[in-house]
Amino acid sequence: MMKQQLQVMLTLQDEINTVVNENWRAQSYAWYRAIWVESAELLDHYGWKWWKKQQPEMDQVKLELVDIWHFGLSLELQQGSPAQVAEKMLSELSTGEWTPGDFRENLEAFTLNTLASRQFDLVGFAQLLADAEMPFTELYQRYVGKNVLNRFRQDNGYKDGSYIKNWGGREDNEHLAEIAGQLDAHAEDYSEQIYRSLDERYREIALV
């Protein structure tokens, strides 16, 4: 199941990167830098300031982890096709089991490894998932939903400003969460189901 889900996510990431720039692999984008910046935002949501009372905003923490995963998959895809990279990533993830630890210290280690190598620290990311008590299946569901929404936005005028982000008084990501929660994440066409449902609702509500 994990191998299939990895391949699905890698394929989706390849597709959305190609929508943005069909020659994206040749551009050598600084994906590692995007991970670094997102990691700082992630730490802010988790909390680190000792001079004020803070509680981890775990839903935002998970959203930031999904954003980092987008960039991590892009880095991994610089090394081969979705099928090849899925095999490599599965091999790395099968090296051990992770238990929750110190999130802040593990995030700092992950960020340092990313900056030093300019590659995606997959093992370090797996540790962050454990720290956030976010199983791989939840990462898959959240990633696929966000990826499909990004593609949907691109297909409906996001670049030229014609896309309508609020439908019937709710943001598109709220509609996404509702739709995704009603579908079977284990279905082979899970991403296609989300896209179709978004499209139907968008035309019913936003384009009336």
Can you walk me through this structure?
There is one protein chain. The chain has 208 residues and is an all-alpha fold. It folds into two domains: 133 residues, Type II deoxyuridine triphosphatase (all-alpha NTP pyrophosphatase fold, Orthogonal Bundle); 67 residues. It is built from ten helices and two strands. It has a two-stranded antiparallel ribbon with strand order 1-2. A hairpin with a 2-residue loop joins strand 1 and strand 2. The longest helix has 20 residues. The protein is globular and about 50 Å long. 31% of the residues are buried.
Defining traits:
single chain; 208 residues; mainly alpha; all-alpha NTP pyrophosphatase fold; two-stranded antiparallel ribbon; dUTP diphosphatase
Name of the top-level CATH class of the largest domain: Mainly Alpha
The total count of strands amounts to 2
Along the chain, the helix and strand elements come as HHHHHHHHEEHH
Helix content: 55-70%
Domain count = 2
The strand line-up of the biggest sheet is 1-2
- Using the 3D structure, state the CATH architecture of the largest domain: Orthogonal Bundle
Q: For the report, how would you describe the main beta sheet? A: 2 strands, antiparallel
Report how far the terminal alpha carbons are from each other.
Answer: 40 Å
Write the CATH fold name of the largest domain: all-alpha NTP pyrophosphatase fold
Radius of gyration: 18 Å
Q: In the CATH hierarchy, what is the superfamily of the largest domain? A: Type II deoxyuridine triphosphatase
Question: Strand percentage, roughly?
Answer: under 5%
Low-confidence spans: pLDDT under 50, at least 5 residues?
none
Backbone structural class: mainly alpha
Shape: globular
Give the integer mean of the pLDDT values.
90
The helix count comes to 10
InterPro entries: dUTPase/dCTP_pyrophosphatase
Keywords: Hydrolase
Protein name: dUTP diphosphatase
GO molecular function, one term: dUTP diphosphatase activity
